[in-house]
Amino acid sequence: MWMYEKKLEYPIKIKHPNPKMAKAIITQYGGPDGELAASLRYLSQRFSMVTPQARATLNDIGTEELAHLEMVGTMVRQLTEKASIDQIKAAGMDAYYADHDKAVYPVSAAGVPFTAAYIQSKGDPVTDLTEDMAAEQKARSTYEWLINLADDPDVIEPLKFLREREVVHFQRFGEALVIVQDFLNRKHAWAVKLPCD
Ligand SMILES: [Fe+2]
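Above are the sequence and the fe (ii) ion SMILES. Below is the predicted complex in structure-token form.
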């Protein structure tokens, strides 16, 4: 089960509407390398993970990604809430507006709706953890590209925080991979030894 804390992991107070930036940032809500994909990937993979430590890592990081999803959704909302129709049109957000008004809906920056095809849950712990490390690097890269596109410190600071967390997650998945490989090697050594006994 989960306990909900009614506060953001990092404060977000964007004063100036910018639907153009929202259109890019929303990719970390519902895009291929976004927080929804990350949380679903890790929270699904944990069921078949082989060591308690690696399962706990997937659980912890999958949970934190939900908090990041909340942050990204808050950013998108604050960037669009007070935007005028002219600003929406100038940002090329008119197609999104026609379908969703200024609500937050999981799509990529190109407007492609979220799909579970972005993620895998392979049942092989090494495969899954390797995917997770790549996913963290892809998310870090995306945050860097978003920081490059931004010019408002109210937008840049939370993006920098999110980028930093992806670096930490990458390291934690790396540690989990070492633990799992060690576990599998010992299991394999034991299995090979048995017929010789
Ligand atoms: Fe992450």
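The pocket of fe (ii) ion is lined by residues 38, 61, 65, 136, 139, 165-166, 169 (CB under 6 Å).
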